[in-house]
Amino acid sequence: MVSKISVLLIAILRSIDVEGKIVNGNKISLLWLMALVLSGLAWADGEMTPGPDRYGKGEAPRYPDWRFDGPDGRGFAYYLAHNYWRYAKHEDNEQDFINSAKFFERAAATERGERVDPEALSQRTLPIYAVKDLTQARQRLMAVLNKGARGTYPKPAAQAQVMFDCWMEQQEENIQPHDVHACRQGFEDAMARMEPPPMPPLMVQPAPPPPPAPPAICPEVTCPKTPVSFIVYFDFDRYNLTAKAQETVEQVVAAVRERNPTRVVITGHTDRAGKDAYNERLSRRRLDTVIAALRQAGITEAQLIDGSYYGERRPRVPTPDGERNAENRRVEINFQ
C-alpha cells in the first residue's frame, strides 16, 4: 500500500512538472488534479485493476504513471485511453469542464476493460449541415473497427475514434472552425492508414470505327459524288448554335443545294463529362437544333433521312469518363 501511494505522489508531481506549473506560483486545473488523485486512489485500493484486454491478448499489465511511461505496442485499449486522457486534459485547459469530464470518463471506462465505441450522433446536438458528413464518417470508422482494425492497427484505430469524438464535440460547439477542421483532419489522417486506397477508374476504350468502304471503280461521269462531311461544334453543356456553328450550318445548306445528295445523315454527340442519361438527352437536343436550322433554311425533310443521337458513346477523341473535350461536343453531318 505504501509503495502504491508513493507511486501516486510521483505521478502527481510529474503531472505538475509536465505541464510546467508550480503549486505556489500558478493555478493548477482543479478538475485534472481531482481526476488524477481519484483514479490513483482507486488503483491503490485495487478498484481499478485491469480486466482482460478486449482488443488484444490476455491481461494488460499496469505501469506506474502509465500515461507517460507505458511502452510501445500496448494495443488498442492502451492507445484509446491514452488519447482520451490527452484530449480530456486539453479540454480542461480550455476550461470546458463538462466535455473534459466526459473524456476522462471514457478513458477510465477503457481502463476498466469496458468496450468504448465512438460516440453516437444522438449524444450531441449537431448543426443540420454537419450531420451527413459525421454519419458517413462514423459508418466508415465502425466498418474498419468491425473488420479488426483494433488488433491490426491499434494506434491509428484509437486515434481515429478519439478524433471522431473530438470532431463531434467541436461541431456541437460550432464556434471554432479551426478546431473542427483540426479534429476532422486528424480523423481522416488516421483513417487513411486503415482504409484501402480507392481503385483507379476503369478506362473503357470505345470500339474502333468501321473501316471506310473501298472507292467505287467506275467511269468518272457515272461515279457518285464524293461524300461530304461537316461538324457543328457546341459549347460545354449547351445545345444552342454559336456564331461559328451557324456559319457551318450555312455551309451545309449551300453544299446540299450544290450537290443535291440523296441522303443527309445527321448524328448528335457529347463529351464524357456528366451522367450517361443526361448526355443522351443533350445529344438529342443538339441534333434537333441542327435539323431545325436546316429546315428553316429550306432543306426538305425527305432529305434528312438518318437523324440519330449517341450521347457520349461515340467520342471523336477517346477520353476517360468524366473528362471534358471540345471536339466531342458536336453534331456530324454526312452526305451520301
List keywords for this structure.
336 residues, mainly alpha, 60s Ribosomal Protein L30, Chain: A, 3 domains, elongated
Q: How would you sum up this structure in a few lines?
A:
The protein has 10 helices and 4 strands; from the N terminus they run H-H-H-H-H-H-H-H-E-H-E-H-E-E. It has helices at residues 2-18, 30-44, 66-69, 76-93, 97-111, 128-152, 154-173, 177-192, 243-259, 276-296; strands at 229-233, 264-268, 306-309, 330-335.
Extended strand count? 4
Task: Return residue spans where pLDDT drops below 50 for at least 5 consecutive residues.
Answer: 1-28, 40-71
* H/E topology pattern: HHHHHHHHEHEHEE
Distance between the termini: 103 Å
Task: Classify the secondary structure makeup into a structural class.
Answer: mainly alpha
Mean pLDDT score, rounded?
77
What shape does the CA trace take? Answer: elongated
User: What percentage of amino acids are in beta strands?
Assistant: 5-15%
User: What is the alpha-carbon Rg in Å?
Assistant: 36 Å
Query: Major sheet, described briefly?
Result: 4 strands, mixed
- Count every helix, treating DSSP H or I runs of 4 or more residues as helices: 10
Protein described:
There is one protein chain. This protein has 336 residues and is mainly alpha-helical. The chain has three domains: 1-49; 72-197, no CATH class; 229-335, 60s Ribosomal Protein L30, Chain: A, CATH 3.30.1330.60. Helices cover 50% and strands 6% of the residues. It is built from ten helices and four strands. The chain has a four-stranded mixed β-sheet. Strand 2, helix 10 (276-296) and strand 3 (306-309) form a beta-alpha-beta unit. Helix 1 runs antiparallel to helix 2 (30-44) and helix 4 packs parallel to helix 7 (154-173). The longest helix has 25 residues, at 128-152. The relative contact order is 0.08. Mean pLDDT is 77; it is low at 1-28 and 40-71.
